[in-house]
């Protein structure tokens, strides 16, 4: 399965992180690595959405990708700060 189709299930009461990007985007690749690491440390599910297959996401975010949402709310765009994402997920800046 393509990483752009990755989807994880959300249990009630837990956070979910969404990475919005597109194939061939080096900033998206960088963001994916940070999101994957922080979410693994925090035990938080994450999903990835591709703006090239979703017209609504493309209209909303094409100038900002990669975009990270936490629980459906925009958290950041272009560059993901691991410490800031950890804090948004309830963790310490240096780790879980």
UniProtKB/TrEMBL annotation:
Alphabetical list of Pfam families matching this protein: Glrx-like (PF05768)
InterPro entries (alphabetical): Glutaredoxin-like, Glutaredoxin-like_YDR286C, Thioredoxin-like_sf
Source species, domain of life: Bacteria
PANTHER family: GLUTAREDOXIN-LIKE PROTEIN C5ORF63 HOMOLOG
Protein name: Redoxin
UniProt source species: Streptomyces pristinaespiralis (strain ATCC 25486 / DSM 40338 / CBS 914.69 / JCM 4507 / KCC S-0507 / NBRC 13074 / NRRL 2958 / 5647)
């Amino acid at each position: 399965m393509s990483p752009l189709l990755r989807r994880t299930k959300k249990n009630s009461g837990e956070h979910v992180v969404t990475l919005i990007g597109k194939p061939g985007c080096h900033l998206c690749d960088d963001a994916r690595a940070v999101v994957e690491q922080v979410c693994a440390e925090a035990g938080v599910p994450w999903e990835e959405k591709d703006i090239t297959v979703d017209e609504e996401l493309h209209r909303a975010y094409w100038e900002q990708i990669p975009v990270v949402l936490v629980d459906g709310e925009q958290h950041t765009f272009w560059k993901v700060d691991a410490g800031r994402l950890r804090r948004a997920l309830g963790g310490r800046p240096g780790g879980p």
